[in-house]
Design goal:
- The structure is a single chain.
- This protein is of the alpha/beta class.
- It contains ten helices and 23 strands.
- Helix content is 23%, strand content 24%.
- The strands form six sheets. It has an eight-stranded mixed beta sheet, with helices on both faces. A five-stranded antiparallel beta sheet has the order 4-3-2-1-5.
- The chain starts with 7 loop residues before the first strand and ends in a 13-residue tail after the last helix.
- It binds glutamic acid.
- Glutamic acid binds next to loops.
């Protein structure tokens, strides 16, 4: 029997009947996605296949679902509805699980969906805004670098200049907080810029992609004109949290509520069912600031973790190889062993800013309590306050991308530039 990808078929095997949509399949096999969202694969010569609806007819009212989140008729619908007076959102896709499906050649999940595919797969989005899709990349976020951040930031700025009322960036979750921090330093925004991803690919019934994307769209048309991350707030499908791009961290490998604000409350929550947004902290409102783009990132910066007994000579590598700044993830209040202190001094003498952050993540650096801390300050280390180590690294890269002047860079690094340092009530 002839069938092609997207057809709706019935498969009979050993007296059991399966129905579903034909997925990309290996030669000699047929793989279908069933209504339950599960995929099933069969050897063609062992089953009886009946075509129920071909791809074209299914597009006009068939059943079944692409990626388990939509009925096939929406797959070919025009996602742009320019006649409607809905807010305009540009959705920029970079890759990651939210854009992933199983590659039937390798059996691995890989980023294959474009922004338009994501929009087509989640028809509810069309009720919220008029969307324009744009593909920035199709990569897993571990492959991002500072050039990727700048390209992304440039595209975001172009879309805002072209009239977008809000931006959604679909992104792999692993390094989403780095990209969100990078855009937070590079862009002063007049509209919401929302990062969203998913922990479970769209092929899986427990995928979080639809809820996260819908909540992200609610935030993109809201009053919160900041760079934020919107992801599941709990393991249930009840609400998403809105995290400031400089205060957020992925804190779990696989849970859907992996993202947490650290040293700050989330900016707010979005109710999945009602779309209601509740906010918990002050935020910059739509139109309060005008759009400014400040690109420039120095890639030669490193984040080094101190561990008991670690050889400080590791810092020599960076000092002797053209690195321009370091973030150290110290212990507790922000410590390294006394052996490391002369190496910190050496880096500072080489005009490399050295920022101290903490492996505790929660809490604030205070190097005034113990001897080692005081000696680190004397050696020229900068206390990272309550900034996350990753955010400190991105801040350092951005600051060194703005100035070659060491004193000026240190001065900028001590200040709160984009919500990364919360006010200290402890001193
Ligand atoms: N490691 C991949 C990435 O960060 C997949 C993880 C995800 O998107 O959740 O892009």
């Amino acid at each position: 029997m002839e069938f092609k990808q997207g057809d709706w078929v019935r498969i009979e095997k050993n007296g059991t009947v399966y129905e579903g949509k034909v997925m990309p399949s290996m030669e000699g096999y047929i793989t279908i996605k069933m209504k339950s969202g599960y995929n099933a694969g069969f050897s063609i010569d062992k089953v009886r296949i009946t075509l129920l609806e071909n791809n074209g007819e299914a597009a006009n009212g068939g059943n079944g679902g692409k990626n388990g989140v939509k009925e096939p008729e929406t797959a070919t619908e025009n996602i742009y509805e320019p006649g409607k007076k809905l807010p305009k959102i540009a959705i920029l896709s970079t890759g990651g699980t939210i854009a992933s499906k199983i590659d039937y050649r390798t059996g691995a999940v890989s980023s294959q969906f474009t922004a338009d595919d994501i929009l087509a797969a989640i028809p509810e989005l069309k009720k919220i805004a008029d969307f324009k899709g744009r593909v920035i990349s199709s990569i897993l976020s571990e492959n991002m670098d500072s050039d990727s951040w700048q390209n992304l930031a440039r595209a975001v700025v172009e879309e805002i200049e072209a009239g977008a009322d809000g931006i959604i960036i679909t992104h792999g979750t692993d390094t989403m907080m780095y990209s969100a921090a990078a855009l937070s330093f590079m862009i002063e925004t007049s509209v919401p810029i929302v990062f969203v991803g998913s922990q479970r690919s769209a092929d899986r019934p427990s995928s979080d992609n639809a809820m996260n994307a819908i909540c992200a769209a609610r935030v993109a048309i809201s009053e919160i004109a900041e760079i934020v991350v919107v992801m599941h707030g709990t393991t249930s499908d009840d609400f998403c949290e809105i995290h400031r791009g400089t205060k957020v961290r992925k804190m779990h490998t696989s849970r859907r509520d992996a993202f947490k604000s650290v040293n700050s409350l989330p900016v707010g929550t979005v109710d999945y069912r009602t779309g209601e947004i509740k906010t918990f902290v002050d935020y910059i409102r739509r139109g309060e600031k005008s759009l400014k783009f400040k690109p420039g990132m120095e890639p030669k910066c490193a984040l080094v973790k101190f561990t008991p007994g670690a050889d400080p000579a590791v810092l020599d590598y960076y000092i002797n190889n053209g690195y321009r700044g370091l973030v150290i993830e110290g212990t507790g209040l922000g410590h390294v062993s006394t052996k490391w202190i002369p190496f910190i001094r050496k880096a500072v003498d080489a005009k490399m800013p050295v920022i101290i952050t903490s492996q505790c993540l929660n809490g604030r650096i205070c190097d005034r309590v113990y001897d080692t801390g005081r000696d680190m300050l004397k050696a020229g280390a900068i206390e990272g306050e309550d900034t996350l180590p990753e955010t400190s690294l991105v801040k350092l890269m951005w600051v060194l991308g703005q100035t070659d002047d060491f004193e000026k860079a240190v001065d900028m690094l001590r200040k709160d530039l984009s919500g990364e340092i919360t006010e200290c009530t402890c001193r």
